[in-house]
């Protein structure tokens, strides 16, 4: 029985030349787990918000959206609010109260449910999700993963029939993201809840889904099972842009040209595929180049740094030491709430340690310049169009008026945002906002670039473009420090990776060594290759080391 029907839906934002959605039609059956994927700006979030009437964007819509055979426009407010749940991408944007238990009860109270019913639902939901331990905590003390789980719990208290989620793992570390997705799988499997999930990170969600819908430029182009979608995309020539976003097992399958085999979509299926191959003795170092030569004097250094946000609060950083050099890319990984963003703020000068030193190298023009791209890129925008925002910055930097347009054009070309220059920053998708914010940061010509979760909301093509850009900047001598939860991005991009835990940097090593020695903070490609080719941490490295049985001397 179908719970959702989309009939020939098109949608156009005000003053937009092209529709964001065009002739969209599909159905979702009750109890299905459906993943909605596609490149940045293809209309995924727009579609999801149209289904949630209270969050529908302003614009012109044609076609029909039916929930339980009733058009959305005719649903009563109680049904629309309570039976269609929605979890946003940014955990901070959905929490509205000060205490965890208040947040859990807020939605049910808004529905006017009796107090005893609310208390019972809150209790059983908190118990089922295992969050009793922080039931009475302040919401602002929670980690990112806890906040996202709280958002999910507060929606579940209303007992929705269908759950809509817009990239809910975008700001979660790998372990928290896995736990969150496993919770969704339990909801679907044990409670029969219908789930429609928008995601760029397809590594784990493909194996959980019943169906995958692929959007391209506002149109639905593929609708099939995960295995069928992955196999179809892997066999396209030239490769489809979304191929780089597929699970690592499917990407290895494509690189190996194993067309006679069933396309794998999970780590287990990927390992079953590799059993049919032998491997060379060493995994090639792909695609990480050798680390740039270092001067004895670092560009930036944190030495025995201690930091806390208030005298009565515990330390966030505890004797942290890290050296950064010109011409390198360093990625810092770690769980939510361990102090990664704090580390960036100290280097940017927005926070000061109470013990230890933060030093920047002295240059002919003064001390090395830093530039920070925060986790929320909208914090950087002050004007009504991206173009005006960039021009305003150049004016502040005293760039001659005659040069400003040329500088904006050059950075827009480099980041492929020409089509976004005359858009309002708040009307852009998450990945588009990231690219435009990065362009603004780069206009300051920094020596040290600080990036906080730069791949959040980015599709595979945008991410690959960022990798290329960072490598180009490295060749020009720029040092980049990246805080990220994206292990695959770090493995492909970084010269060095570091793990931040309990306020300290515990290990710093090249990606090949860092990820192959980790069990949880590693790439899916390395999990697939364990026991076959230990030091392969990217899909390209696994495929390059693999040989058909009988043609390799020995396994790794």
Secondary-structure topology with pairs:
Blueprint: E1 2-12, E2 21-29, E3 33-38, H1 44-51, E4 60-67, E5 70-71, H2 77-83, E6 84-87, H3 100-110, H4 115-129, H5 144-156, E7 162-166, H6 174-191, E8 194-198, H7 205-208, E9 211-216, E10 219-224, H8 226-234, H9 248-256, H10 267-274, E11 277-279, E12 300-307, E13 317-324, E14 329-333, H11 340-348, E15 355-360, E16 362-363, E17 366-367, E18 370-373, H12 386-396, H13 401-415, H14 430-442, E19 448-452, H15 460-475, E20 479-483, H16 487-493, E21 496-501, E22 504-509, H17 511-516, H18 524-529, H19 539-545, E23 546-548
Parallel strand pairs: 3-8, 3-9, 6-7, 7-8, 14-20, 14-21, 18-19, 19-20
Antiparallel strand pairs: 1-2, 1-4, 4-5, 9-10, 11-23, 12-13, 12-15, 16-17, 21-22
Helix pairs in contact: 3-4, 3-5, 4-5, 9-10, 9-19, 12-13
């Amino acid at each position: 029985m179908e719970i959702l029907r989309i009939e020939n839906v098109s949608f156009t934002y005000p003053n937009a030349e092209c529709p964001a959605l065009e002739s969209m039609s599909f159905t979702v059956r009750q109890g299905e787990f459906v993943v909605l994927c596609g490149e940045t700006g293809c209309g995924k979030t727009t579609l999801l918000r149209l289904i949630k009437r209270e969050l529908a964007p302003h614009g012109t819509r044609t076609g029909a959206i039916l929930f339980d055979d009733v058009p959305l426009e005719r649903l009563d407010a109680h049904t629309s609010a309570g039976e269609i749940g929605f979890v946003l991408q940014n955990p901070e944007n959905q929490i509205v109260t000060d205490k965890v238990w208040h947040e859990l009860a807020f939605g049910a109270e808004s529905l006017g449910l009796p107090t005893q019913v609310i208390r019972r639902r809150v209790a059983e939901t908190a118990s089922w999700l295992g969050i009793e331990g922080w039931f009475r905590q302040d919401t602002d003390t929670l980690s990112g993963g806890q906040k996202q789980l709280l958002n999910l719990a507060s929606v579940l208290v209303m007992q929705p029939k269908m759950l809509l989620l817009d990239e809910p793992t975008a700001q979660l570390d790998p372990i928290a993201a896995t736990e969150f997705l496993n919770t969704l799988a339990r909801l679907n499997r044990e409670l029969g809840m219908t789930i429609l999930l928008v995601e760029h990170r397809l590594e784990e969600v493909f194996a959980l889904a019943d169906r995958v819908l692929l959007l391209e430029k506002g149109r639905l182009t593929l609708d099939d099972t995960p295995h069928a979608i992955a196999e179809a995309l892997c066999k396209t020539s030239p490769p489809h842009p979304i191929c780089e976003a597929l699970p690592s097992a499917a990407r290895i399958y494509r690189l190996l040209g194993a067309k006679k085999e069933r396309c794998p979509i999970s780590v287990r299926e990927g390992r079953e595929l590799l059993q049919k191959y032998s491997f060379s003795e060493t995994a090639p170092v792909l695609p990480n180049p050798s680390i740039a030569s270092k001067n004895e004097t670092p560009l930036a250094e944190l030495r025995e740094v201690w930091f806390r946000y208030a005298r009565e609060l515990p330390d966030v950083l505890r004797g942290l030491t890290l050296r950064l050099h010109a011409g390198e890319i360093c990625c810092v990984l770690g769980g939510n709430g361990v102090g990664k963003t704090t580390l960036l703020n100290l280097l940017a000068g927005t926070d000061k340690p109470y013990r230890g030193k933060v030093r920047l190298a002295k240059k002919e023009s003064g001390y090395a310049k830093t530039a920070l791209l925060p986790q929320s890129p909208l914090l950087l925008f002050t004007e009504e169009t991206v173009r005006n925002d960039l021009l305003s910055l150049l004016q502040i930097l005293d760039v001659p008026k005659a040069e400003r347009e040329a500088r904006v054009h050059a950075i827009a070309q480099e980041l492929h945002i020409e089509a976004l220059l005359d858009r309002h920053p708040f009307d852009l998708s998450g990945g588009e906002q990231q690219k435009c914010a990065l362009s603004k940061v780069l206009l300051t010509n920094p020596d040290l670039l600080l990036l906080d979760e730069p791949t959040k909301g980015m599709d595979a093509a945008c991410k690959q473009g960022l990798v290329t850009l960072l490598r180009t900047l490295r060749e020009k001598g720029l040092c980049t420090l990246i805080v990220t939860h994206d292990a695959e991005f770090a493995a492909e991009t970084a010269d060095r990776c570091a793990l931040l835990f309990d306020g300290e940097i515990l290990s710093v090593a090249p990606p090949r060594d860092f990820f192959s020695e980790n069990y949880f903070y590693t790439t899916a490609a390395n999990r697939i290759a364990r026991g076959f080719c230990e030091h392969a941490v990217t899909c390209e490295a696994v495929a390059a080391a693999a040989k058909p049985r009988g043609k390799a001397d020995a396994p790794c």
